[in-house]
């Protein structure tokens, strides 16, 4: 029903004369207050509907991985609090060229400022490992932190005083890169995993390499 449809409207009452000012009618005053409040609420609603552009992650990224535009996508998000908006990386500002992640960030997650490390990454020694596919956790990828163990191989015990026990040879190293699993030879085919060894661990590297060649290499991912 519209206001122009006179047939649908009730007949107008007979006009009567009122004495005194209409502004003294409490019903009118209440109506004015309601209208004013509605206008204020509408203004606040319009303000709340403003969106800001922030960066979100396209795919899962691990701690230590570099972050560039190719890994991000722009999202329009409505925040109710400016502090919440400030906790994410704005898509309207240029990104630093040397950003890495301090923690894992999942696909589709907004990029938190607190998850970024800006600055040069420390130099590491890149050590290649040949690891059986079944000994690489499915969650391990570039940037993951792992412990490298050597267990007895098919031939028997390790060639050291530890006998048949597994030995920890590299502790808390970061995965720089790894080859894909599940090749034509099957999921158990060896994968090349390159780990970054800190300069402070360099002195123990000769012994670690000797152990790595004497048994079955196993990676254990750290949370």
Explain how this protein is built.
The chain has two domains: 52-118, Type Iii Antifreeze Protein Isoform Hplc 12; 125-221, no CATH class. It has a five-stranded antiparallel sheet with strand order 5-8-7-6-9. It has a two-stranded antiparallel sheet with strand order 1-2. Helices cover 16% and strands 26% of the residues. With 223 residues, the protein is of the alpha+beta class. The model is unreliable at 1-20 and 30-46 (pLDDT under 50).
What is the mean pLDDT?
A: 75
Provide the number of structural domains.
2
> Into which percent range does the helicity of residues fall?
10-25%
Radius of gyration: 33 Å
Low-confidence stretches: 1-20, 30-46
**How many distinct helices?**
3
Strand element count: 9
Gross morphology is elongated
Distance between the termini: 64 Å
What topology, given as strand order, has the largest sheet? 5-8-7-6-9
Give, in order, the helices and strands: HEEHEEEEEEHE
Protein name: SAF domain-containing protein
Entry summary:
This is SAF domain-containing protein. It is built from three helices and nine strands.
């Amino acid at each position: 029903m519209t206001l122009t449809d006179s047939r649908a409207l009730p007949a107008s009452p007979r006009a009567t004369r009122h004495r005194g000012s209409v502004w003294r009618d409490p019903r009118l005053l209440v109506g004015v207050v309601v209208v004013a409040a509605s206008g204020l609420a509408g203004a606040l609603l319009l303000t709340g509907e403003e969106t800001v552009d922030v960066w979100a992650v396209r795919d899962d990224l691990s701690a230590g991985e570099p972050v560039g535009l190719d890994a991000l996508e722009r999202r329009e998000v409505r925040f109710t609090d400016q502090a919440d908006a400030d906790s994410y990386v704005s898509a309207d500002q240029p990104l630093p060229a040397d950003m890495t992640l301090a923690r894992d960030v999942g696909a589709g997650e907004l990029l938190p400022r607190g998850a970024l490390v800006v600055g040069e990454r420390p130099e590491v020694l890149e050590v290649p490992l040949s690891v059986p596919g079944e000994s690489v956790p499915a969650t391990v990828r570039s940037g993951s932190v792992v412990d490298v163990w050597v267990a007895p191989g098919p031939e028997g015990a390790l060639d050291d005083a530890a006998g048949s026990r597994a030995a920890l040879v590299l502790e808390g190293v970061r995965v720089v890169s790894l080859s894909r699993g599940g090749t034509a030879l099957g999921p158990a085919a060896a994968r090349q995993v390159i780990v970054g060894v800190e300069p402070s661990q360099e002195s123990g590297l000769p012994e670690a390499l000797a152990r790595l060649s004497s048994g079955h290499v196993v990676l254990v991912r750290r949370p």
